[in-house]
């Protein structure tokens, strides 16, 4: 254990990860690994560090964006472009189980920190590359951006209201998706590594990671040639399954199966006539006549406030819930009870709140042991662990190799 932190007790305790990534996709992956107990050594470039440090909001010049995605990591500032810096990366790679990088394709080869080079030093090494379009193919040399991936893969064409402007997801869904895809891929490779002693190269494409999420859309397209379009909050195949306006705001309703539909009509709305209405007898007919069904239901929901309708739907076992803003979600008693808001001590932010860990382990729970590093916080400690003397570290600092 290099820095002053609690001993890792999570299921990945003992796993050593060298993090050469920045911005979001790679750092999200290594954050998850760190939350589950892995030791993460994060390398940043001298001067500006990880580019996410230039993203606000700021407190005393420190980026909150960086801090919220780089917890449980040891921070080292190192000039990988220098020969001595590259040698230090090689030393770290010899001891690592995993390397994660998200440079543009070809950059790691120029820097001498590519899979071929590092795996020659450590045959057990799992080397995960996250790029915009993967290591091969016509677009391989292009940079990767969440917004561009959302546009290129079709998700923006099905998000928003019909005939409206294309809309991106409210969060960086492809960055996070690539990070999660990298995470489970690394864990699969880890099993192979433990069984055989072999490492391997994992090639993750930002754009491709979201394509498997188009499950229902792919079913319609590949069987019937149906190209999905934007449907607002409506479900593509089930009704009513969408947002509805009430007397004081909106709620979401998921009365998609026949049992829930009938309970909604009889027990919640007191409209048994809708159950017998030939336009709405089955889910297929409700979908065919959704433009007629929606205003009927919305007229009913307008008679009371959202909280009342949610209470009535819950009592009748009809899936229903509020549309919270982020403040409401972060103060929801359920999420608070399940530790989805946690705190960690940071030298600039003080006692800062962060999103908790969603996976709950009965025997090896994850933990937030360490706040995100300030620039170069753990450089000396990591170098000392590699066997560098104080004089050697001072020389590296004077020469600009480390910071």
Automatic annotation (TrEMBL):
Transferase in keyword set: yes
GO molecular function terms listed in the Swiss-Prot or TrEMBL record: CoA-transferase activity
Pfam families: CoA_transf_3
Transmembrane segments: none
Keywords (A to Z) from UniProt: Transferase
Key word Transferase present: yes
The protein, known as: CoA transferase
């Amino acid at each position: 254990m290099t820095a002053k932190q609690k001993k890792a007790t999570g299921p990945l305790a003992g796993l050593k990860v060298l993090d050469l990534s920045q911005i979001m996709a790679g750092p999200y992956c290594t954050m998850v690994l760190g939350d589950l107990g892995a030791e993460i050594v994060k390398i940043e470039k001298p001067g500006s560090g990880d580019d996410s440090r230039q993203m606000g909001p700021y407190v005393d010049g420190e980026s909150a964006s960086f801090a919220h995605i780089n917890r449980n990591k040891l921070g080292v500032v190192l000039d990988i472009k220098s020969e001595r810096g590259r040698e230090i990366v090689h030393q770290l790679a010899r001891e690592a189980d995993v390397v994660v990088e998200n440079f543009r394709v070809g950059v790691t080869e120029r820097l001498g920190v590519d899979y071929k080079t590092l795996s020659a030093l450590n045959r057990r090494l799992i080397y995960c590359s996250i790029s915009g379009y993967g290591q091969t193919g016509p677009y391989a040399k292009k940079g990767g951006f969440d917004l561009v991936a959302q546009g290129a893969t079709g998700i923006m064409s099905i998000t928003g209201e019909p005939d409206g402007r294309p809309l991106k997801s409210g969060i960086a869904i492809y960055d996070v998706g690539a990070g999660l895809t990298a995470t489970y891929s690394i864990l699969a490779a880890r099993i192979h590594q433990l069984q055989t002693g072999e490492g391997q190269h994992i090639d993750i494409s930002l754009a491709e990671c979201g394509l498997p999420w188009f499950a229902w859309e792919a079913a319609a397209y590949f069987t019937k040639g149906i190209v999905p379009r934007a449907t607002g909050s409506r479900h593509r195949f089930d009704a009513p399954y969408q947002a509805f306006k009430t007397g004081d705001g909106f709620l979401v309703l998921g009365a998609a199966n026949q049992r829930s539909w009938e309970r909604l009509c009889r027990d919640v709305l007191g409209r048994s006539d809708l159950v017998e209405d030939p336009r709405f007898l089955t889910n297929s007919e409700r979908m065919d006549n959704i433009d007629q069904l929606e205003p009927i239901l919305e007229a009913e929901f307008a008679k009371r406030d959202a909280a009342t309708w949610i209470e009535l739907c819950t009592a009748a076992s009809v899936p229903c819930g509020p549309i919270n803003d982020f403040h409401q979600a972060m103060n929801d008693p359920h999420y608070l009870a399940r530790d989805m808001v946690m705190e960690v001590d940071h030298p600039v932010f003080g006692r800062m709140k962060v999103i908790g860990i969603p996976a709950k382990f009965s025997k090896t729970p994850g933990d937030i042991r360490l706040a995100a590093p300030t620039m170069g916080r753990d450089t000396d400690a990591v170098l000392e662990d590699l066997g560098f003397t104080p004089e050697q570290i001072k020389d590296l600092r004077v020469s600009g190799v480390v910071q």
